[in-house]
Amino acid sequence: MQPTAPVPPPPGGPLPGEPSGAGGSRASARRRLVPAAVACAVAAVAAVTWATGGFKEAPKQPVERPGKALNVGLFTVTVRDARIGLVKGVFDSDPKRYLIVRMRVVNNGRETESLGDGGLTDGLAARTKAGKWLEPDQVEGVAGGAKTDAVQPGLPVEASAMWKAGPADAPRRFTIGLRKWEYRTGFTDVSYNWLPDTEDGALAAKMTLPVAAAAPAAAPAPTPTLFPTRAARPTGTARPTRGATRPPAQRTRPARPRPTASP
Asked: 220-263: per-residue pLDDT in tens?
């Protein structure tokens, strides 16, 4: 009867199924080197990940401080301050209250960009009490001492982003967000353009500003008159005289003697 149990390998010999000879030794050595190489690669990736902050997800709304120049792609924006102010629009009969954020804007692109819709306005947002982000109602700019509604490449513009405020609104702090601009294609347009990232909650930066009190409205200056009129003299007041007084002119004729008839 022949035994059915497998025959054990000889001491120091190859394992079952492993080729013998010099080639088998090299194959076994390669199999031992592969796990070691994988372990080294994993260790290197882990070291890089730890140095860059681990596997933590990058914040969608990084907090920045006012006065710092922030490159958001198409624009470099430096947010200065926030205040309540009265602004009279082109079609407004009376000035209205706005919450105004002043900022310095530089166009990083090669073409002139608008300050309004389709331009800088699309990349600005303010957080409401409900947590929503709203674009400004209007944005005005000044460049070289003149008003402008556009940003030319390389020419800084002092811009004012404005959100409408009610008659009783007086927030002490105001949070503004800057969206990231990307040079890419749109959903329906295959050409490349600068487009803001409008994903919910995604911002290139956000900051909270103290709000200055509204300045009192200046009184209108009086309109100068071309020919000023002389004030009326009060009744009963004598006209002032100049120099020595002259005697009043005699208005009655002297009486002349008449001849009498002889008796």
From this structure: 555 555 555 565 566 666 665 565 556 555 555 555 665 555 44
Cβ atoms of 82 and 99 closer than 8 Å: yes
DSSP SS3 for 99: strand
The two tokens of residue 10 are 């000889």
Distance (Å) of CA 114 to CA 70, 99, 150: 19, 21, 4
Amino acid at 85: G
At residue 188, the 3 state secondary structure works out as coil
CA 199 to chain centre: 18
* Separation CA 166–CA 170 (nearest Å): 9
Tell me the C-alpha distance between 87 and 92, whole Å: 9
Compute the distance between CA of residue 101 and CA of residue 162 in angstroms, rounded to an integer.
Answer: 6
Q: Are 160 and 124 in contact (CB under 8 A)?
A: no
Per-residue pLDDT averaged across 153-177, rounded? 94
Place of tokens 């994993």: 42
Under a CB-based contact definition with an 8 Å cutoff, are residues 73 and 194 in contact?
Answer: yes
**What is the pTM for the complete model shown?**
0.61
Between CA 5 and CA 34 the distance in angstroms is 33
Alpha carbon distances (Å) from 87 to 21, 71, 98, 263? 92, 29, 7, 106
In 3-state terms, the chain is what percent helix, strand and coil (to 5)? 15, 30, 55
